[in-house]
Amino acid sequence: MAKRVRSMQDFDFRGTALSADEFSKGKVITTTGEPHAEYAWDCGPAISRYLEELRNGRLIARWCKRCNRTMLPPRMFCELCWCPTTEWRFVRDTGIVNTFSLCNITWDMKPLKTPQIPAVIEIDGASAGMGIMHLIGGCDPRKVRIGMKVKAVWKPAAEREGAITDILHFTPA
Amino acid sequence: MPRRVAIIGVGATVPRPVTPELSYRELIHEAAVRAYEEAGVEPREIGTFMPCTEDFYEGISISDEYSNDQLGAVLKPVHTIGGDGIHGIATAYMQIATGLFDTAVVEAHSKASNVLTPHHIMNYAMDPVLNRPLGENPLYVAGLEMSRFMHESGATSEECAWVVVKNRRNALSNPNGAFGAKVTVHDVLSGPAAFCPLGALEMAPPSDAAFVVVLAAEDRLPARAASPVWIRGVGWSNDSPTLETRSWARALYAEAAAQRAYRMAGIRNPARDIDCFEIDDTFSYKELQHLEALGICDRGEAGKRTARGETEIDGATPVNASGGSLGCGHMLDATGLFRTVECVRQLRGEAGQVQVKDAKTALAFGWRGVPTTSGACVVLGA
User: Fold this and answer.
1) Looking at the complex, does the CB of residue A83 fall below 8 Å from at least one CB of chain B?
2) Contact yes or no for B117 and A46 at CB 8 A
3) Residue B96 included in any domain
């Protein structure tokens, strides 16, 4: 039976490490490429209306008659009973925190002094467990709790463009 | 003996160059509703799902995660295929034939209109070290292939143009034919140059569409299912990807894929034993090259037979009665499933004005496009 490796010292590493210098001076050969991938996604009737109502400063959901679920984000068919949804229903711009994270690290792994707070908000008027993936703001990160009541902070009407960012963040209600 | 497997329902949206009114979700849902209705099943009764999706076409990593809602596949077994729709059919066949599941769904779609830089996406399939730095539009691969194919097979520019004339004319009679038109050989040859010898009118334009196919085991056909179309043979194959060394004149991947499918289906002479063919025609010459690779025409004969009208709807070997990709558009990895669905309609006698008389056996063949050597084939029987 092979000897079990207990620690890195048990290996006999051979060879010489490459330095950054060797890369920059072209002693190590690599090829680079820049991506050029552009898309324009058709949103369809449900998400288009959702975005349009965000521009109006409102949240709109779709109702499934069979499941009696008010679904946010809205969709044209119910993924569970698989029936077409039948009605538009406005819901409130308030809700409770379902779950959240204190996000201390940026894209390029730099630490943040003030964390970003992504959170799933269950929206009042939507069915349980449904709502918005957004950010918490205007709040001491140490005070965020699951179950906390929050409300949307909207961009000024003139600046809204029909996007999820028309809501700046959710803040304690 | 493995269980026999049938296609018991197909659903499709009408291919169109753009579909701004629907997201891919609603497009797929529409196809799925039609397919399940034909099959007489509810999604909860289906055993396994095979979406065929390619992340770069969607602009979404791990895009199969987004397939479930619109198929009714939430919390169901999902086995995504990064391949053509016919690869999906082959996988569904295996999962049923082996007894793992009794019913399966294959889905493939194209939202080609949402990809704003399609040739750059295609370029991602090129070798990043040896080929991409040359910087040309990767569609030159089609020009290279056409040159060598014509050189070795003796096919002429006129014969290649006949494929376009035939397929776009067929599409005029097919409600799915987004690019149906009366064009002449002269029109095709005097059109704009593209990747010589390939002309701009010899390239299938992109279409959006969604296709859903329901399959079931012979011993578990739902009572309300549409009349079954049997999977008689499947085969798939890939050649070496290397541009520097690949076979340019012959579509060896198609030869190998077809041989497997024919062996399984007991087909000795495809031109005699199969009544209609829906085969890849992404570019005019591809139909001719594939006709020879699939053993439907002898080498060097496909162009001549096409020009003589033998591949017309009422000819001896009807090819792309639907209009194919030149007539209905190229639908990314949904193209093979489009061809499969057209074959099913032929075998059920539901093909309307493009119906091939007495179609009992049909073949669909899909190719994954430039720069691949990836082909998949299915033989279907009424």
Assistant:
1) no
2) no
3) yes
CB atoms within 10 A of CB B292: 23
In this prediction, residue A147 carries a pLDDT of 97
User: Where do the structural domains in chain A lie, given as residue ranges?
Assistant: 44-172
User: Which among B101, B18, B106 is positioned nearest to B340, based on CA atoms?
Assistant: B106
Q: How far, in Å, CA of B213 to CA of B89, rounded?
A: 8
For B185, the enclosing helix (H) or strand (E) is: helix B185-189
Residue B342 lies in a domain: no
The closest of B367, B319, B325, B309 to B343, measured between CA atoms, is: B319
Res A7: pLDDT? 61
Between CA B211 and CA B86 the distance in angstroms is 12
Structural domains in chain B (count): 1
Q: Would you state the structure tokens that stand for residue B169, as one six-digit string?
A: 């004319």
With beta carbons less than 8 A apart as the criterion, state whether A173 and A150 touch.
Answer: yes
> How far A30 CA sits from the closest chain B CA (Å)?
8
* Interchain CB contact of A28 with B (< 8 Å): no
Q: How many CB atoms lie within 10 A of CB A63?
A: 18
Partner residue facing B59 (CB), from A39, A45, A82: A39
**pLDDT by residue (tens digit) across A37-69?**
999 999 999 999 999 999 999 999 999 999 999
d(CA B246, CA B232): 30
**What DSSP line would sit under A40-64, residue for residue?**
----HHHHHHHHHHHHTT-EEEEEE
Q: Where are the beta strands (DSSP E) in chain B?
A: 5-12, 48-52, 103-111, 193-195, 198-199, 208-217, 229-238, 276-279, 361-367, 374-381
Give the tokens for residue B13.
């949206």
In tens, the pLDDT along B90-109 reads 999 999 999 999 999 999 99
Predicted confidence (pLDDT) per residue in B255-287, tens digit: 999 999 999 999 999 999 999 999 999 999 999
Beta bridge partners of A99: A120
- pLDDT given at position A12: 65
Residue B129 in this model has a pLDDT that exceeds 70? yes
Does A47 touch chain B if contact means CB atoms closer than 8 Å? yes
Residue B72 belongs to domain spanning: 5-116+207-220
Q: Is B168 part of any domain? A: no
Contacts A–B by Cβ distance under 8 A: 70
Min Cα distance B160 → chain A (Å) is 32
Give percent of chain A with pLDDT exceeding 70.
Answer: 92
| CATH number of the domain to which B25 belongs | 3.40.47.10
The interface pTM score, or ipTM, of the predicted complex is 0.91
Structure tokens at B55: 């992340």
Q: Residue holding tokens 């194209």?
A: B110
3-state secondary structure of A1: coil
Chain A residues within an 8 Å CB radius of B126: none
Contact A82 B43 (CB under 8 A): yes
A77 to B56: CB separation less than 8 angstroms, yes or no: no
